[in-house]
Write a structure and sequence with these properties.
The protein has 634 residues and is an alpha/beta fold. The protein is 39% helix and 14% strand. The strands form four sheets. It has a seven-stranded parallel β-sheet, sandwiched between helices. Strands 17-16-15-18-19-20 form a six-stranded parallel β-sheet. Helix 22 links the parallel strand 18 and strand 19. The termini are far apart.
Length: 634
């Protein structure tokens, strides 16, 4: 019989002879009687991912009172709010941090099979994880001991994150029950966005355009913006190609505050200017706000709350692998009682209203990360009898970005509330194609197109790279690539800040912030750097090496232009890097490792880095594949 100590928190003195399982760390070189869960996950990644996806599928299809959970959450005759819940979204990148622990728990359960375990000791500050282990041990007749002192609270790891959240209103909001959080969000949302009601609505109602695109009002070309023209870096030259095919576009924009368009008033003004300077029609989602939509939203939310209260009572006895339920509790509650539910319901009704005004559309295009508004668009586009819906996976497809991956049964299901799907999903190269095949996506639904966001890589050669010569007092030039998540940016810059204290090298640093997430340089006094919003195309030739957060897809721009790329790998999280298992990628899990890699720059160079881009992306600036897609539908 084995006695196990699961270690998730630092500061535990290991004085017994139990088998040590490191929940959020790698093994030390001299350790034998131990297991690293992060390493185990990577060694069995495909099987573990499939187990998790099957669990999510079975959760939604669990029958309670003669109906599946998916059916219980239906808000009309054919659409279920289930598909917009955090459980179904599987967004471990940003929204659902406990998914990492769910994957780890599934890995632990897999490792435990056929082992005789007498006692599990757990050292963690994660109280939901304690509850999951307690459930597991009760079911399997294993003695359980929590080594966490009673009443100890989870500590915030990033002090700068805490500083950002010290506003009284934010603290009050966070301690509210989900129901009151949702109402507070709803009031502030309407107060901020009501001025967008009706913007370009008359033009939208009278449009004769037969192509509709949904996109984000972010990542816009600032030079075009200055002359009141719309050019989205997400879509690149694709809209112009549609125009050359004698088609005009109906644009639905999703507003998010960003440096280029910081307020709803500015967003409304830009939307009018975009329409006046082109033959396309531009609206915002909030253009379609009305009192009728507010009524429908609140009605559906109350209905979902009533159903969910009843469902929750049956979870323990109905859900398979109910040991995972404590780790899902917060996501579930937010998805049916909280802000997430109310936001997703009103977005559903706004999107349905927008699409109901249009004449029959020949082509619908949307960026897709399987976020709730995209799922709603897919459903409503077809419900309103429009044709040829094409979802564009515009960036990269990462192995552990679970939003893009589904249980194989999703694609063969034919129930009333089946998951909304596009008619075609664009893939931008063989790497994405193969990854989707490995994830059970139907090959007949894929349509190869050029990688519109990466076309500049087609002609970018390694000869354009700036040279580094320490013997002639030329500094190493480091480009730090920011992330959409402020927490990831803080982790990135804190690691660099500490690495500079360790290393002994001259370095010039530039931080390229994400369009929606600039930082405050004064928060990082230990780093002397310049912040920029310039494009990767303009920046990359000026730098020797790139340092990026783990999940950012911008690291691909760098490696395909011949730059060594260092990414953070955090054993507390899944490896979301698009460079996972790619040659030319380097990973640092500590400031010491980052300092060592930077100091060893000359040995990182490999003239073949950029050659793998042709096997990764379809690159042809004349867009023959996109042209084929457009002509086949319009």
């Amino acid at each position: 019989m084995i006695k196990i100590t699961v270690i998730d928190s630092v500061g535990l003195d290991l004085i017994d002879n139990s088998y040590h399982i490191y929940w959020s760390d790698f093994l030390q070189d001299n350790e034998s009687n131990a297991l690293s869960i992060p390493t185990y996950i990577e060694d069995h990644s495909l099987e573990i991912r499939e187990t998790y996806l099957k669990f999510v599928y079975e959760f939604g299809n669990t029958v309670i009172d003669k109906k599946t959970i998916i059916s219980h959450l239906g808000i009309n005759s054919s659409f279920s709010l289930w598909w917009t819940t955090l459980v179904a979204q599987k967004c471990n990148y940003l929204k659902s941090p406990q998914i990492d622990n769910i994957i780890k728990f599934i890995s632990f359960q897999r490792w435990c099979k056929n082992k005789e375990i007498s006692h599990i000791q757990l050292n963690t500050r994660n109280h939901d994880l304690i509850k999951s282990f307690r459930k597991f041990c009760a079911k399997t007749n294993i003695k359980f001991t929590s080594l966490t002192p009673a009443g100890e609270k989870i500590k915030i790891e990033h002090s700068r994150s805490a500083d950002k959240e010290k506003k009284l209103t934010t603290r009050l909001y966070r301690i509210m029950p989900n129901f009151f959080q949702a109402l507070a969000w709803f009031i502030f949302y309407l107060a901020e966005h009501w001025n967008l009601k009706g913007v370009n609505l008359d033009k939208w109602k009278n449009t004769s355009n037969s192509t509709t695109m949904m996109s984000f009002l972010v990542n816009l070309d600032t030079k075009q913006l200055d002359i009141n023209k719309h050019y989205s870096a997400y879509w690149g030259p694709v809209p112009e190609l549609i125009h050359r095919n004698n088609q005009k576009i109906n644009w639905i924009h999703i507003f998010e505050k960003n440096a280029s368009v910081p307020t709803t008033h500015e967003a409304g003004r830009k939307i009018i200017e975009f329409t006046n300077s082109s033959k396309d029609i531009h609206v915002l989602l909030e253009t379609f706000l009305s009192f009728e939509i507010l009524f429908r939203t609140l009605r559906d939310w109350i209905k979902v709350i009533k159903v969910s209260v009843s469902l929750r009572k049956s979870f323990d006895n109905s859900i398979q692998n109910n040991s995972l339920l404590p780790l899902l509790r917060k996501d579930w509650n937010a998805s049916v009682f909280g802000q997430e539910a109310l936001k997703n319901i009103i977005n559903f009704h706004l999107i349905n209203s927008a699409l109901s005004y249009l004449p029959k559309q020949k082509l619908g295009l949307l960026l897709t990360e399987y976020q709730p508004q995209e799922i709603s668009f897919m459903h409503c586009f077809k419900k309103n009898h429009h044709q040829n819906l094409v979802a564009c996976a515009h960036s990269t497809l990462r192995f552990w970005d679970l939003r893009y991956h589904f249980d194989k049964n999703i694609f063969t299901e034919n129930s009333t509330y089946m998951m909304p799907m596009p008619d075609k999903l664009t893939v931008n190269g063989m790497y994405m194609h193969d990854a989707l095949i490995d994830s059970n996506f139907p090959a007949e639904k894929m349509f190869h197109v050029e990688a519109q966001r990466y076309l500049y890589l087609e002609k970018l050669s390694i000869d354009q790279n700036v040279k580094y010569d320490p013997d002639n007092n030329l500094h190493l030039k480091l480009l730090v690539m920011g992330d959409y998540s402020m927490a990831n940016n803080i982790q990135l810059l804190e690691c660099l800040e500490n690495a500079l204290l360790i290393g002994n090298f001259e370095i010039d640093i530039t931080f390229k912030h994400h369009p929606a997430c600039p930082i405050e340089p004064n928060d990082f006094p230990g780093i002397n750097f310049v912040q920029t919003a310039e494009s990767m195309q303009e920046l990359l030739p000026m730098f020797n090496i790139v340092f990026s957060s783990n999940p950012t897809s911008a690291s691909l721009d760098a490696i395909f232009s011949g730059k060594p790329v260092i990414s953070i790998v955090d054993p507390k999280k899944l490896n979301l890097s698009p460079l996972r298992n790619q040659p030319g990628a380097f990973f640092a899990c500590s400031p010491e490792e980052l300092s060592f890699i930077l100091d060893d720059y000359n040995n990182l160079l490999n003239e073949d880095f950029h050659k793998i881009k042709s096997t990764f992306f379809n690159l042809d600036s004349s867009l023959p594949l996109w042209d084929k897609l457009i002509k086949s539908f319009v």
